[in-house]
Amino acid sequence: MIRKHILVALVQNRPGVLNRIASTLRRRNFNIESIAVGHIEVSNLSRMTIVVEADDAKIEQVRKQLDRVVEVIRISDITNDNPVAREMAMIKVKATPSTRSEIIQVVDIFRANIVDVSTDSLIIVATGDMEKIETLIDLLRGFGIRELSRTGTIALPRGGAGPLTIEDNKPLRHVVDHASAEEENLPNW
Questions:
Q1: pLDDT tens for residues 59-96?
Q2: Residues 118, 123, 126, CA angle at the centre, nearest 5°?
Q3: 41 secondary structure, DSSP code
Q4: β-strands 113-117, 145-150: how paired?
Q5: Can you give the pTM of this predicted structure?
Q6: What's the DSSP call for residue 61?
Q7: Distance in angstroms (rounded) separating the CA atoms of residues 181 and 28
Q8: Fold adopted by 3-81
């Protein structure tokens, strides 16, 4: 059965890592719905969240291939872990004196924030699951969207330690320190 999967990976901060991961997915003919990367609490590491649509067998096959990328420390499919998934959107909406109060009411209903006000537009920041963001965008289209920017999905599994949890007693720090020491000997490609 084809469905959306959320893959999360701990990767080393090196030039070209995002390109290698995206190329691996491209070669397997995956369309990346969203990809978000950011630093984590351990220096020289980032967390990458990738949303793709495929069946379970194809996802497991590509997960194993991504696990072989040198800079990937760990990768996991958290789709079945009941993850908390959110994205952020910044939406610039056309606003006239007659529509401004109605836009503010819509923004309040969605618990979004207005972060900029000008004479002819408002910039709104909203966070939530994909459905909430899509619904807000659909409602704001009626006023006229001038610009739109979305972050893509980021996610964490619910509950205790997840598959990418970093704890002091795990060998992850050693792996990262060792890889950083070898970094000088790696070819720059």
A1: 998 899 899 888 999 999 999 888 999 999 999 999 99
A2: 160
A3: S
A4: unpaired
A5: 0.79
A6: H
A7: 32
A8: Alpha-Beta Plaits (3.30.70)
